[in-house]
Amino acid sequence: MKTQLTKITFLAIMLTASSAFAQRVQTVFKGHGINRSGGYAAISNKFTTINGDYANMPEIYGGWFVNSKFLIGASLAATTNYIPAPYSFNQPTDQKMTYQYGQFGLMTEYVFASNKAVHLVANMTTGAGFTLRYDRRNDWDDFDDLDEWEDDDQNANCFFVMEPGVQLEINLLKWMRFAPGVSYRKTFGAKGDGLSDSDLSNVSYNLTLKFGRF
Question: Deepest in the core among 11, 112, 113, 126, taking most CB within 10 A?
Fold first, then answer.
C-alpha cells in the first residue's frame, strides 16, 4: 500500500513539475506589459531645401506614448514659403509659380531615459508625400481652368516618403518638452512637377515643442 501511495505521489509531483515547466516554456517571450500609458502632441518647424531652394515646413504630430518609451501616432507637414517653380505650357508667364510640398503618415518615436532632464529621441516618419504648383499671388479658388491643371501630368505628384531622425530632448516641465533635432527625408517614386527624388530628398533641421502626459 505504501509502495503504491509512493508511486502515486511521485507521479503527481512529476506531472505537476512537467506542467509547470511547459508553462514556463510557453511564456519565455512574455513582455512586461503596459505599465504606463500616456500621450502627447508636438508642434515642430523644419528647415530644409527642395530643388536647391530653402523650404520652411511646419509639422504637427502626436500619438499614444507607451511606458514612457515609445510613441505611435500620426504626423502632417507642409511647406509655407515661396519655392520657385517653372511654368507649364498652359499658364500665363505673369504668375508667381511656387512649389508646394507636403507629407503625412505614421509617426513613431523611441525615447531613451525619458525621465532624465536631457535625453535622446529617435524617430521615424513613413507615409505619403505630394508636390504641386500654384500661383502664390492668388487664392486656390482663383484658378481659371482647374481641369487643365488636373490634366497636366507634370503638376500633381504623389509618392512614398520616409524620414528617420534624432532629437536632443529637454524636459522643461512635467507636461512640456523642447527637442531640437535633425532628420533625413527620402522620397521614392517622385517624378512630376519637374522634381525628382534627388530634388526632394534632403536633410531637415527642426525645433519641436511637445505637450502632454509623458
Answer: 126
Please write the tens of the pLDDT for every residue from 51-92: 999 999 999 999 999 999 999 999 999 999 999 988 765 566
Nearby residues of 63 by Cβ (< 8 Å), 6 or more positions away: 39, 40, 71, 72, 73, 74, 107
56-67 burial, b for 16+ CB within 10 Å, e for fewer? ebebebbbebee
Neighbours of 50 (CB within 10 A): 22
Q: How do residues 5-28 score in pLDDT, each as one tens digit?
A: 455 555 555 555 455 444 544 444
